[in-house]
Design brief:
Layout: E1 11-14, H1 20-27, H2 38-46, E2 50-58, E3 61-72, E4 76-80, E5 91-94, H3 100-116, E6 122-126, E7 132-134, H4 144-149, E8 152-154, E9 157-162, H5 167-172, H6 176-188, E10 192-195, H7 202-220, H8 230-240, E11 245-253, E12 259-269, E13 273-281, H9 290-304, E14 309-311, E15 325-328, E16 331-335, H10 343-363
Parallel strand pairs: 4-6, 13-14
Antiparallel strand pairs: 1-2, 2-3, 3-4, 3-5, 6-16, 7-15, 8-16, 9-14, 9-15, 10-11, 11-12, 12-13
């Protein structure tokens, strides 16, 4: 597909039964990520998500796939990515490179096809390949092409870290006082890192990691449960083990000389990209600087696995010290009825409210 074929006609077909060959084809795609893998699909299935997979063809040849989840909420909803599974981006997975304009044109035709065939009333999509990046924060950020095409969207801001660089380049871009100094201090304090590489150790790791998350919520005085519940973390780690999940702990000595896990993190990764799933630590060990060492060792691991880009998952200030790029990834929404364009905000608020209720009942 060339620059002049942006308004070409595409064909779509709903795939009811996905065989391993399709997953292998998707795995080799140009813009594949962990969120387009069979392992991630298995994880979402265990979480009760109903997959929708559509092939995209041009001139009778399959050129890509659309992957998302569907559910009934009084209306037919398709979300790509779905909420509640830690998926950051999804949408189209094209087998060969295409321009951003071509990608948006495919979405317009795909949405029209889904509406016409009564597969959806409301669709929301967040695609990593449709993004704007900047070295500096720009609060007035807009996506020019989506504005031009009249596509409704809301911004999602995050940090992306390019780990295709050499390890020396990655080290050089770390902030000295808030990062390099802390990593060196952690090592002087005798802190070491441990990667969970045995399946029988997953349950105990998740239990410990969840305690870290609870401690983090306590000191932040946040109500509810951690954004990722224990059962969700357990399903995730088992589903992606051993090739697509990084479970890492920072180990140090307590005042009695016993080994203790001071902090821990989870990264989900694939052959072209990875995501910072969750991390936390015990407040009483923060003076030993375990967090900077933990993230740095995770970066080195993902670099060695050819992860490409790490989505650091949000705009927390502490993530700046690792040298990422400011990024906006728009959440595109399409609806048969204009009133539904605010559905994403409603769904998200409802989900957060349910987490808060669960936390309240658990404490009670």
């Amino acid at each position: 597909m060339s620059e002049g074929s942006r308004k070409a006609t595409y064909q779509f077909e709903l795939i009811e039964h996905v065989n391993p060959t399709i997953w292998e084809t998707i795995k080799s795609a140009e813009d594949n990520s962990i969120f387009f893998s069979q392992e991630w699909d298995d994880y979402q299935t265990k979480k009760g998500k109903k997959r929708i997979l559509v092939s995209v063809s041009y001139e009778c040849t399959i050129v890509g796939y659309f992957l998302g989840s569907k559910f009934w909420a009084g209306i037919k909803v398709i979300m790509s990515p779905p909420m509640g599974t830690g998926t950051y981006t999804q949408g189209l997975c094209m087998l060969n490179p295409i321009t951003e304009a071509e990608r948006i044109e495919i979405y317009k035709q795909l949405v029209a096809w889904l509406f016409k065939n009564k597969k959806a009333d409301y669709i929301q999509i967040r695609d990593l390949q449709i993004r704007e990046e900047s070295k500096e924060w720009r609060p007035e950020w807009r996506h020019t092409l989506l504005d031009k095409k009249g596509i409704h969207y809301t911004p999602r801001y995050t940090f992306l870290l390019d780990v295709k660089k050499t390890e020396e380049e990655l080290w050089d871009q770390l902030h000295y006082k808030s990062c390099k100094y802390c990593i060196n201090k952690a090592r002087k304090n005798g802190l070491t890192t441990k990667i969970i590489d045995k399946e029988e150790d997953i349950d105990s790791f998740v239990d410990q990691h969840y305690k870290h998350l609870q401690d983090m919520l306590r000191r932040k005085k946040t109500s509810g449960l951690p954004s990722q519940r224990r059962d969700n973390l357990m399903v995730l780690c088992h589903a992606l083990f051993p090739h697509h999940i990084l479970m890492l702990q920072v180990i140090g000595k307590d005042t009695d000389g016993n080994d203790v896990a001071m902090s821990s993190c989870i990264f989900a990764y694939g052959n072209a990209g990875s995501s910072f799933f969750t991390s936390a630590s015990y407040q009483k060990y923060m003076r030993y600087c375990p967090n900077e060492l933990m993230v740095w060792e995770a970066i080195c691991f993902l670099h060695s696995r050819g992860a490409g880009i790490i989505d650091l998952g949000g705009m927390a200030d502490y993530k700046k010290k690792f040298g990422p790029t400011y990024t906006i990834i728009p959440m595109m929404t399409f609806s048969k009825f204009n009133i539904l364009h605010g559905a994403y905000t409603t769904f998200k608020k409802s989900y957060s409210y349910l987490l808060s209720l669960l936390g309240h009942f658990k404490r009670a």
